[in-house]
């Protein structure tokens, strides 16, 4: 199964509470996919954090994905656009960050990609150019794997626009990390996703999802 719905990226510096508590709240609000970043931490500390977060997700049937080639004791990783190519020895789930058609063309055995930045992001001010929903949709049609939209997604309207463009989910950071109530913020965004695209088969192709989305409009 590949990520779908609202996917949370961690940032302990932006979080308004302990990272485990924020993730707990997000899971209570319906999130089932979390990507652990925190790349500035020593490996031992990062592995300990992964060990704390995995049970929170597992109890709800969710999955912790680790940013970078080291799964930190798990088997789901999300790799940067810069490499490695091909991905390291096969894990159960491999994602990749992409930003344009050239990077999509380099994919080999990845299971899904994130496409960014869709909107201006408070976490990365000045980072761009921004795809917007139309640019996102163009790249989704060029992708051979499911796409998660990423970058500046904070509102239900933005969630709907990304899913309407063909994304199987949206990745958010600040909207959850900076929220006073992560559970409420997650529930609001999850509800917006489910309004326009109820969960569908994980085996469907991006073209299947785009066609289904168009039928929901």
Give a summary of the structure in a few sentences.
This protein has helices at residues 19-28, 43-58, 101-105, 132-142, 156-164, 174-177, 182-196, 206-216, and strands at 5-9, 33-36, 63-67, 76-79, 93-98, 112-115, 147-150, 169-172. By secondary structure, the chain is α/β, with parallel strands linked by helices. An eight-stranded parallel beta barrel has the order 1-2-3-4-5-6-7-8, surrounded by five helices.
Layout of helices and strands:
Elements: E1 5-9, H1 19-28, E2 33-36, H2 43-58, E3 63-67, E4 76-79, E5 93-98, H3 101-105, E6 112-115, H4 132-142, E7 147-150, H5 156-164, E8 169-172, H6 174-177, H7 182-196, H8 206-216
Parallel strand pairs: 1-2, 1-8, 2-3, 3-4, 4-5, 5-6, 6-7, 7-8
Helix pairs in contact: 1-2, 1-7, 5-7
Tell me the strand order in the biggest sheet: 1-2-3-4-5-6-7-8
For the sheet with most strands, the description reads: 8 strands, parallel, barrel
Q: Kindly estimate the percentage of residues that lie in beta strands according to DSSP.
A: 15-25%
Compute the separation of the termini in Å.
25 Å
Give helix % range: 25-40%
Radius of gyration: 16 Å
Give the class from helix and strand content and strand pairing: alpha/beta
- Can you give the mean pLDDT? 90
Element-level helix/strand string: EHEHEEEHEHEHEHHH
Which term fits the overall shape?
A: globular
Query: How many H/I helices?
Result: 8
Oligomer: single chain
């Amino acid at each position: 199964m590949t990520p779908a719905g609202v996917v949370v990226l961690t940032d302990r510096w932006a979080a308004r509470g302990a990272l485990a508590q924020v993730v707990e709240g997000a899971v209570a609000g319906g999130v089932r996919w979390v990507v652990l970043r925190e790349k500035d931490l020593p490996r031992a500390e990062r592995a300990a954090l992964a060990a704390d977060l995995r049970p929170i997700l597992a109890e709800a049937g969710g999955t912790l994905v680790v940013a970078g080639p080291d799964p930190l004791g798990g088997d789901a990783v999300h790799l940067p656009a810069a490499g490695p190519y091909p991905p390291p020895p096969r894990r159960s789930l491999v994602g990749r960050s992409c930003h344009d058609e050239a990077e999509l063309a380099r994919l080999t055995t990845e299971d899904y990609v994130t496409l960014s930045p869709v909107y201006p992001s408070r976490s990365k001010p000045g980072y761009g150019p921004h795809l917007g929903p139309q640019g996102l949709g163009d790249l989704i049609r060029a992708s051979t794997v499911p796409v998660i939209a990423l970058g500046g997604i904070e509102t239900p309207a933005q969630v709907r626009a990304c899913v309407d463009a063909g994304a199987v989910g949206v990745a958010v950071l600040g909207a959850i990390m900076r929220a006073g109530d992560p559970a409420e913020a997650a529930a609001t965004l999850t509800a917006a996703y489910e309004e326009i695209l109820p969960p569908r088969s994980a085996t469907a192709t991006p073209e299947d999802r785009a066609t289904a989305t168009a039928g929901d409009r």
